[in-house]
Specification:
The protein is α+β, with helices and mostly antiparallel strands and 479 residues long. It contains 6 helices and 22 strands. The two termini are 58 Å apart.
Length: 479
């Protein structure tokens, strides 16, 4: 009974400009086209192809990764000798993005093809393929090579911000001549590689990541093709497809000219909340650590810092002196008992004290960040203590001052509303209790920060044939 079946037709062609991938990661690459499928009605759908080529197809859920053709794959259709066309039959749901990948049984085959989709309703089809840059020419002559190993003492990071404990090694790549270069690995492990421009931050593996033109299946030896520019520092990060894997590896690089490979490791500390990679999520505002991190020159005195850093230091001290004078005058003013006959005066006296504590904690926080960045020999226990305690205390004072100002507004509103019936003694009594209870309420709302705030450390050492440089940096990054 086909009366309720709706058919959708899609026609296209595979050309030499089409994208390429290896469907089995063990054979030569074939041209393919990725087609996004959006379903309007859930049900059973049938996919059939018609072509002069022997076609092969797979369907994926949410995302298709040509470097990992098994990831997210729901079903596949293998076109053998007896059946030259793909045939898929599976249940699809609405509100889910599907990707149909059409390729050929043999490599480097091009031609026209048509896809016929039958089901309870029509579907939307969209070509989401991009031109394959694996066709970019580059010299295949090996110009440089590098061999090393990942072991239990190697540094670790979260490569995909999902799993942790990926052992990795960073290699500095110095390019003499601009052009396309190929980086290939050979190892008994399933290696994975990324290229970064200028610097690599293991706590943010997506920062400075250079878009690669092509990479092979992640459970085999990787091959990267990217355009590298002379005078620019690139960082090659060699890791594994799965966590907790160690072993030897070999890197061969080919291109228009020789390049130098200098291994180095990093030694940095970072203060953050929660698990690694969680601070990539967007939040409201930025922390003082984020603002100052890139402005401070390590292992230099304040006189050798940038003009912007000096302006920040001077502004902070001016704010501290101004806030100190304002707080002292406010405290002296509200010491007068006549001004504290109602709760409003008590709130303002307490607010004067918290304002002094807030500007003091801000100044302490500023100089703590500056000094721990400038003097990298400070013990980690000191850095860890400041990481855990200073910012939560600063937030406590800041929130307490804001709540006290809100209490002032509420008390004045009640005074205006009740007029002569306003009970001054009751207002004083309530104000004292609120001032006593409020710090505990605020602290309970931010108690997770000192508990989950951690200090993350990794080392930095540059090794090459002519120089050895040891360097330690401290920077803080919060979620």
């Amino acid at each position: 009974n086909t009366s309720s079946v709706v058919q959708t037709t899609y026609a296209s062609k595979l050309t030499t400009n089409s994208s390429m991938y290896s469907p089995s990661c063990s054979s030569r690459s074939s041209y393919y086209e990725a087609i996004q499928v959006n379903v309007h009605r859930s049900g059973l759908y049938t996919f059939l192809s018609k072509s002069n080529m022997t076609t092969y197809g797979s369907i994926y859920k949410d995302h298709f990764n040509p470097s990992n053709p098994l990831e997210n794959r729901l079903d596949k259709s293998f076109a053998g000798c007896d059946r030259r066309q793909l045939s898929l039959r599976l249940t699809l749901g609405t509100s889910v993005t599907y990707i149909l990948v059409v390729t050929t049984f043999s490599p480097n085959v091009t031609g026209d093809f048509s896809i016929f989709i039958s089901g309870p309703n029509n579907v939307d089809l969209k070509n989401i393929s991009t031109r394959s840059v694996i066709q970019i020419p580059y010299s295949s002559a090996v110009q440089s090579n590098y061999s090393s190993e990942l072991n239990m003492s190697s540094q670790t990071y979260s490569r995909d911000c999902g799993k942790s404990k990926y052992y990795y090694q960073t290699i500095r790549v110095n390019v003499v001549e601009t052009g396309y270069y190929a980086l290939s690995s050979l190892s008994s492990m399933d290696t994975f590689g990324d290229i970064y421009k200028d610097d690599f931050n293991p706590m943010n593996p997506f920062e400075n990541l250079l878009s690669q033109d092509f990479w092979k299946c992640i459970w085999n030896d990787f091959t990267l093709v990217a355009k590298l520019h002379s005078g620019t520092t690139y960082i090659l990060v060699v890791t594994t497809a799965s966590p907790n894997v160690t072993g030897n590896f070999f890197i061969a690089m080919s291109g228009p000219n020789n390049i130098t490979l200098d291994p180095y490791t990093q030694s940095l500390t970072s203060c953050f909340i929660g698990q690694e990679c969680q601070f990539y999520k967007k939040s409201i505002g930025v922390t003082l650590d984020d603002i100052l991190r890139d402005e401070i020159r390590p292992n230099m005195t304040l006189a050798d810092q940038t003009i912007l850093m000096k302006i920040n230091a001077a502004s902070t001290m001016i704010m501290f002196v101004g806030g100190l004078i304002n707080s002292i005058l406010s405290i002296l003013t509200f010491q007068n008992k006549d001004l504290r006959q109602v709760g409003c005066g008590i709130y303002l006296l307490a607010s004067s004290i918290t304002s002094f504590l807030t500007i003091s904690m801000f100044t302490v926080k500023f100089w703590f960040v500056v000094l721990t960045q400038m003097d990298l020999s400070i013990r980690l226990s000191v850095v860890r203590g400041g990481c855990v305690s200073i910012e939560p205390l600063l937030k406590l004072c800041l929130y307490l001052d804001a709540w006290l100002n809100a209490c002032v507004a509420i008390d004045r509103a009640i005074l205006v509303f009740k007029g002569i019936k306003f009970n001054k003694q009751k207002s004083q009594h309530i104000a004292r209790w609120i001032i006593l209870i409020l710090p505990f309420c605020i602290m309970s709302s931010i108690i997770h920060e000192p508990i989950y705030r951690e200090l993350y450390e990794y080392s930095f050492r540059i090794d090459n044939s002519s120089t050895n440089v040891d360097q330690t940096e401290h920077f803080a990054s919060f979620a």
